[in-house]
Amino acid sequence: MLGKGELAGIAPGAGPVLAGQDERTTTAADGDEIADGVRAWSLPGHTAGHTAWILDTGDGRDGEDE
C-alpha cells in the first residue's frame, strides 16, 4: 500500500522499483479510508508522494494536546 503520489514520482521507463510492484501494489489518495479507521494522509516532503496513515482508535482523541 502506497500513497498515490509515490509511484507517480518514478521516472517514466524506470520500471518497477518494488518486487511484484505491478501485481501487488495498491495506492491510496489523500483521505482514502483503506480499512475501518485507517486513512491515508498526504505528507509530501521526504518524497513527492510521502504518505502517513491515520489510525482512528474510536476513543475521541484527535491527536492534539489537551
Automatic annotation (TrEMBL):
InterPro entries: RibonucZ/Hydroxyglut_hydro (IPR036866)
Sequence segments annotated as region (Disordered): 1-22
Domain of life the protein comes from: Bacteria
Gene3D superfamilies to which the protein is assigned, alphabetical: Ribonuclease Z/Hydroxyacylglutathione hydrolase-like
Protein name as it appears in the record: Metallo-beta-lactamase superfamily protein
Organism encoding this protein: Saccharopolyspora rosea
